Amino acid sequence: MSFVHLHVHTQYSLLDGANKIDPLIAKAKSASMPAIAMTDHGNMFGAVEFFQKASKAGIKPIVGCEVYVAPKSRFDRGGRIDDFEAGGNYHLILLAMNRLGYQNLCRLVTLSYKEGFYYKPRIDKQLLEELNGGLIALSGCLASEVNRNIARGDLGGARTVMEDYRRLFDGRYYVEIQDNHIDEQNVANVELVRLARELSLPLVATNDCHYLEKEDAKAHEVLLCIQTGKTLSDEKRFKFGTDQLFVKDGDEMRAAFPEVPEAIANTLDVAARCDLDLEFGRYQFPVYAPPRGRTLQEHFVAETRAGLEQRLAGMRATEGWSEEKERSYHERLERELAVIEEMKFPGYFLVVADFTRFARSRGIPVGPGRGSAAGSLVAYALGITDLDPLPYNLLFERFLNPERVSMPDIDMDFCYERRDEVIQYVREKYGEECVAQIITFGTLKGKAAIKDVGRVLEFPYQDTDRIAKVYPAAQQGKDVPLEIALEKEPRLQEIRRKGEQEEQLFSFALRLEGLLRHCSKHAAGVVIAERPLIESLPLFVDKDGAVMTQFSYGDVEKIGLIKFD
Question: Is residue 1 pLDDT above 70, yes or no?
Answer without folding.
Answer: no
